[in-house]
Every structure is written in C-alpha cells, then in structure tokens.
C-alpha cells in the first residue's frame, strides 16, 4: 500500500489546546490566526501600544510584546522606526498553506494535546538574509477599516485555497497590476476573547512581516474590519504548488538537492532570528516560477530565544501534520521539547518525500509499522560516511558506465535487501549514498543526538550542493540567480509539468 497519499486534505494535523489568559506562548495550529476582528477598544494596552504608528514591527518589538517582563528588566536597546515599500515583483503566498493540507485534529492525539506552548526568545544572532526590507508600522486607522484594503490593493478576487486557519484569495493592485495573496483569518472561536484573538492574528503577522530572507515569504500588510470581526493579511503571491512539483515525479536529483538546500537555508534564518516554524511540510513550501522555494505559514511558529534571556525556551504541544511530526512530540505529548530539532526532523522527512515520492511513515508512533521498524536497531551496523566515500570511488572508477540523465531524473528505489528488515537502514538504503550520512543524523529518533540546523548547513556534502537563490536589486525588485547543473519543474493546475 503506498504510504504517500495523494489525498492531501486527509493528512491529520494537530494544534495545541489553548487556555485563557495572556496566551503569551500558546501553540497555534499550522494555518495560524483566522478571521476575526481587531478592535483596539477591546484589546489590552500592550496590544494597542504595539499597533501604534510610532513603533516598528521589528522582531524586538514582537519579543517585548510577548514577554514584557523580560524586556522591562533589561537594558533598553534603541529601535529605529522605518516604513516599508509594500511592492514586490516576486510572487509568493502567505496563506498558500491553506491551499493544500487542510488541518484537523487527529482523534488519536486529540486528548494528548497540551494547553500551552511556552515561547521565549533572546536577541537574534547575526544572519545572512536577503537584502533587508524595512519593516512597516501599523496605524490604528488602517487596522480597523477593511475599505483601506481595497483602496490600496484593489478588489479581492477568487479563493485559491482554504483551511482551518482561514481562506486565501487573490488580489490584483490596479495601480501596477501586481498580484498578491490575501489571507482572511478564521473566525473568532467561542470563548476566545477579542484580546486573545486579536493578539493571535497580529502575532502571526508581526512574525511574518519581520522576516526578510530569500527563502521566506514576504508578509506585507494587515487590515481588519471591526464590525464584521475579520482580519486580512496581505502577502506575496507564489503561483507554484511545491506539493504538485514533488508529486509530478519528474524532478531531477540536482533539482531535489537545490530545493533541499533552499529549505534548510530558510530554516537556518528562522532559527537565527529565534523562531522555530514547527509545521514544516510540503504544503507549507511554495515556489516562484523561477524555482525559488519559500517557507510560508507561521501560525504554529514559536519564539525560543528572547532578549536578555540565557539559553532557549522549550516548546510544548502537538502541532503539525502526522507524517512530519518529530517522534518526541508524539511519544511524550505533555513534555517540553526543543522546537529547533522538530524543524530539522520535518525537513528530513521532506527530503525523503522528494526522493521517494511517498512518506516514509504515516506517523512517528509505534502503531505505524514502518516507523516501528525504523525505530528498531539495525540488524547489522552501517557506516554511512564510509559507504558514501566508497560510492564516490566506485562512480569515479574506469569501469563505471556514465549515468544517463533520464536515470538521474527519476530516482528509483534500490532493490529490496532481505537483510534490511528493521532499523534506520531500512529507509536510508533508499536515499542517495551521499545524502545518507546527513539524513541519518537529521532523522535521529533521539532528539539529543539529532543534528541541529547549524550541523546541517556546516556539513560538507550539504555545503557542496548548488542552489538557486533570489537577490534583491531594489526595495521592490528581485532577480533569480540560477545555480548550474539542473533545471526546475513548474507545475500548474491542469497543465503538464514544465522544465525551466
């Protein structure tokens, strides 16, 4: 029976059960905030202050907003208020996640979710993002009048997807014809106060709008309609469905590795900013038509580093989709965990999906036969590093026939090894030899021995992978720098795959 179901909407996804109060570290479901109203009169004073046009939507602001106690006792750091140009040529979605994996709570884990995910963070370390885009401040008038959305961006158009977090529509700006994605957040839940709801929506927006990297979607604006209880978030629109590209079955090995590197560089940037995504999956990756992959949907993101706070803050709660969940979340649902290592595990699963075109397991729990066998010790030891070196020598040998591009284009599973009945080698043997040393570290069931994103990006094989990137040529223009040796597959609804 195939493990990778093409019925994407039936992949179980989880969210943390939320409690009342400040909701400072609540775990949110992957689709993030949903439609509701921002009414400043009904929000806390801290919420109102955050929306002041005199305060920028910087990551420092967000962290102080969520952890006022930590900021109050710390030495203040000057913040610069800037205004951003909300125009862009690259197309990207900030709500495209809703297009694909509809989230719903798994009945098996529904009772195991935790009330709250603790999230603290510290001063972000230096990173190498795409040319920085100035952050923009929110005015109260803009936040509370959705007519400003249409006056600035035009008439909201067709729905391109929907999910538990809300719906995503297209909008075309009349002034220049540029297309954006508009996410209308889910309605406010029963028992959810206006303050709690408003904070969740604006937190996702501020997280997204504070991130500027070639492999992270650009979040541009937020609007609300107080009387109608609605929130709208404007993002870049990306037209290419990454899930569809993977399922096309025509990706070359070089293309797979290009996307893998782009994904991890985006994750590395998020972690450098003190943010873990916690819901990485094929559906939360989208593409430009030039082959640039971008991470979307920060509804489940948590801040694990706060200013002036030593160490990291562990997260808690089951969020995400079953096949991508890290095993420590499922095995000990009431325990706290390092959300960075959760992202690394999910990225490893994504790599397996790209190569195998199927999930390695339905969920990382003992009731799943494939995961149970993977979690067992290998019946004989395997040195992946030595195996990779031997494979390189074999390919370089004079008797090695040249490998055709057609063979390389569609990776084929290796013949079944009867001795590989259980253990990690059961999966690793199906992956490229060169990738096995790193993937075996990324998919360590024990998180204490799992590779960090820094370990991944410092790996020699990973560093050698050529990857395309996007470079800012101005505040609103970007160009794609193509890496050599591969093409990219573009898949549109109802159209055959196109190689670019």
TrEMBL record:
Pfam families: Pkinase. It comes from the Eukaryota. It catalyses: L-seryl-[protein] + ATP = O-phospho-L-seryl-[protein] + ADP + H(+); L-threonyl-[protein] + ATP = O-phospho-L-threonyl-[protein] + ADP + H(+). Residues 1-52, 68-143, 373-420 are annotated as: Disordered. The keyword Repressor does not apply. Residues 154-462 form the Protein kinase domain. ATP binds at residue 189. Residues 36-46, 120-142 have a biased composition (Polar residues). GO terms for cellular component: cytosol. Residues 68-98 have a biased composition (Low complexity). SMART domains: S_TKc. Coiled coil: none annotated. PROSITE patterns: PROTEIN_KINASE_ATP, PROTEIN_KINASE_DOM, PROTEIN_KINASE_ST. GO terms for molecular function: ATP binding; protein serine/threonine kinase activity. InterPro entries: Kinase-like_dom_sf, Prot_kinase_dom, Protein_kinase_ATP_BS, Ser/Thr_kinase_AS. Residues 383-393 have a biased composition (Basic and acidic residues). Its EC number is 2.7.11.1. Keywords: ATP-binding, Kinase, Nucleotide-binding, Serine/threonine-protein kinase, Transferase. Belongs to the protein kinase superfamily. This is non-specific serine/threonine protein kinase.
């Amino acid at each position: 029976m195939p493990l990778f179901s093409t019925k994407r909407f039936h992949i179980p996804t989880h969210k943390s059960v939320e409690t009342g109060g400040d909701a400072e570290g609540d775990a949110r479901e992957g689709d993030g905030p949903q439609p509701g109203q921002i009414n400043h009169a009904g929000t806390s004073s801290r919420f109102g202050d955050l929306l002041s046009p005199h305060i920028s939507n910087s990551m420092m602001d967000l962290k102080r907003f969520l952890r006022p106690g930590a900021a109050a006792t710390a030495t203040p750091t000057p913040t610069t208020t800037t205004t951003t140009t909300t125009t862009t040529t690259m197309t990207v979605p900030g709500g495209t996640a809703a297009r694909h994996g509809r989230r719903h709570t798994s009945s098996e884990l529904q009772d195991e979710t935790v009330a709250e995910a603790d999230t603290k963070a510290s001063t972000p370390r230096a990173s190498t993002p795409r040319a920085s885009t100035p952050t923009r401040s929110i005015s109260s008038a803009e936040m509370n009048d959705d007519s400003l959305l249409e006056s600035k961006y035009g008439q909201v158009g067709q729905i391109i997807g929907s999910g538990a977090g809300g719906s995503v529509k297209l909008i075309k700006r009349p002034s220049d014809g540029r297309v954006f994605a508009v996410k209308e957040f889910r309605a406010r839940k029963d028992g959810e106060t206006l303050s709690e709801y408003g904070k969740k929506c604006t937190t996702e927006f501020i997280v997204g709008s504070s991130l500027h990297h070639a492999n992270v979607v650009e979040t541009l604006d937020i609007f609300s309609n107080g009387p109608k209880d609605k929130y709208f978030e404007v993002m870049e629109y990306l037209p290419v469905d990454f899930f569809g590209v993977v399922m096309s079955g025509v990706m070359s090995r070089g293309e797979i590795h290009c996307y893998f590197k782009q994904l991890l560089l985006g994750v590395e940037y998020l972690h450098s900013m003190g943010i873990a995504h916690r819901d990485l999956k094929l559906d939360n990756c989208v593409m430009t038509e030039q082959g640039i992959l971008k991470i979307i949907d920060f509804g489940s993101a948590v801040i694990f580093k706060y200013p002036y706070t030593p160490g990291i803050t562990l997260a808690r709660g089951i969020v995400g989709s079953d096949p991508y969940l890290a095993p420590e979340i499922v095995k000990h649902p009431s325990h706290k965990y390092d959300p960075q290592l959760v992202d690394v595990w999910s990225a490893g699963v994504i790599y397996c999906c790209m190569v195998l075109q199927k999930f390695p397991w339905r969920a990382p729990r003992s009731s799943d036969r494939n995961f149970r066998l993977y979690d067992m010790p290998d019946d004989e030891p395997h040195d992946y590093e030595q195996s990779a070196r031997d494979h390189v020598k074999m390919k370089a040998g004079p008797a090695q026939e040249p490998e055709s591009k057609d063979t390389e284009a569609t990776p084929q599973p290796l013949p079944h090894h009867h001795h590989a009945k259980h253990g990690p080698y059961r999966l690793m043997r199906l992956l490229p030899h060169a990738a096995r040393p790193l993937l075996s570290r990324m998919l360590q069931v024990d998180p204490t021995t799992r590779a960090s994103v820094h370990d991944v990006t410092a790996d020699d094989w990973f560093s050698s992978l050529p990857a395309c990137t996007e470079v800012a040529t101005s505040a609103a223009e970007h160009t794609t720098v193509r890496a050599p040796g591969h093409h990219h597959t573009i898949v549109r609804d109802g159209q055959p795959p196109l190689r670019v």
